[in-house]
Amino acid sequence: TKGSFDHSESSAARDELLFLLERQGEMAKDLREAKTQVAELQEENLRLSSLSTQAPHQHQELSEKEEMQATIRALLEENEKLKFENDELRVEAQAPASHELRVEQPEEDLRSLTSNDLNLERLEGLVGKAQASLIEGLNSELTRTRQLLHQHLAASGQFQELYELERGELASCSRSPLLQLSATYETTALHILSLPPDFENEMFVDTYQMLMQWTLEEWASPTLLRNIAGGLRILSRHDTHKMGLLESGIVEAMIRIVRRPDPVDGGLDGVAVEHAVAVLSNLALKHPASRAKILQCGGLPVIVKLLGLFEFPLVQEKACAVVAHLACTNEMKAALADYQCIPGLIKICSTQVESAKLLEEAVRALRNLCHKSESNCRHCLIHGGIEILGGICLSSMDVQIIKQAAAALTNLASNEACRAEAKKKFRWDKSFLDKAIARVEKMQQKAAKASSHKTLRHLNSPSEHPNSPGGGGLQTEGFRSWQAASVPCQVQ
After folding, report:
1. pLDDT digit string (tens) for 322-379?
2. C-beta separation of 244 from 209 below 8 A
3. Which of 47, 245, 341, 395 is least surrounded, with the fewest CB atoms within 10 Å of its CB?
4. Which pairs from 151-157 meet CB under 8 Å and 24+ separation?
5. Could you tell me the pLDDT band of residue 174, with boundaries at 50, 70 and 90?
6. Cα angle at 165 between 161 and 166, to 5 degrees?
7. How far is CA 122 from CA 32, 34, 90, in A?
């Protein structure tokens, strides 16, 4: 009976050992699969390192690198698991059987365990090499990306001057950690804005939201605000970028820049404000969502206030353009009128401004505001807009300004009271524009003829000095009358 019992217990121990050997076989298979995966990772790493490093596709390569890192982490976890199971198998194989029966471990099983240990060590070495190769590849890509950014900045005329300025400031403030940090932010903004954004990628969405947040911070330097607004001024011209820029908070950021006082004198930073208002103008052009966002963020009173900044004519010009682009719906026209936009535009038109573009934008804004708007036509009549616009048509020598002013008068003439006033003061009719342009052409022909005659008299005069007797140039009555007629009239 005792011998039979011993025989059955020995059989059970052998069965358990066979089970352990089968388990070791499965482990060896898993190790071979892990080795295959590591080889595939090495091939994938080589393939990625040979890909093009163009800047717009850097984010795709980085995402693939992140997947590689996740795979390597999974392999390391599997490696630890295999080591743990291997140790358990070794302990179980060497442990005595029940009832103090010991089964001798075959030499073949010991060789298998030793082979497993070697495979584990080899796997650890391959994983370590893969990690080192990955880190080296990322560093190399970072270096190449920086080089591409520098090449892009050097080739871009929009950013070259600002970039050189940033480099000079960064070198000059190397002794001040605070100034160096500020210069780093300023240069980083230029680097980001030099690349065309892809707002379908979350990386670009997060980056641009970060840029907009910088404009709201108290520590933002004037140069940083100029760099951000200047770069966004270029990007906002493209319709494909407008929706992504809106979602990143561009309208709130630009309004914040306009409202932000200059830290030096407490006034406005004319350069940053001009860039910011130009961004709003670009966004509002043929883009209803941007117009609604500007209205929602309280941008109308801010823009109307800028119309009175005669010390910043470029800011005035961009503010007039924003009004012209916003005044495309009855709701927006009424809202602009409520903020006294029309008197501000008429004041610009009635002032002797040096910029023809400013005058043209102001007249264009009045034209759009009065289009199919009875209430705005009456506002314009009350504030003397018809007299101002008519005077521009009769005095200006710029054909584009005349066309805008005549079109504004045509929109005003849709109102009966305005039409009567225009006919009374300027004999306005449908041919008013043609007559105004013909006047300009006639004056230009006279000017060309007078200039030619003056040159001929100068060549035939006894002296080359215009103030000498007989050499005073052309001073005919006709020429003096043309000079008098060409001076723009001042309508009070």
Report:
1. 999 999 999 999 999 999 999 999 999 999 888 999 999 999 999 999 999 999 999 9
2. no
3. 47
4. 152/55, 152/194, 152/195, 153/190, 153/191, 153/194, 156/194
5. very low
6. 120
7. 11, 11, 19
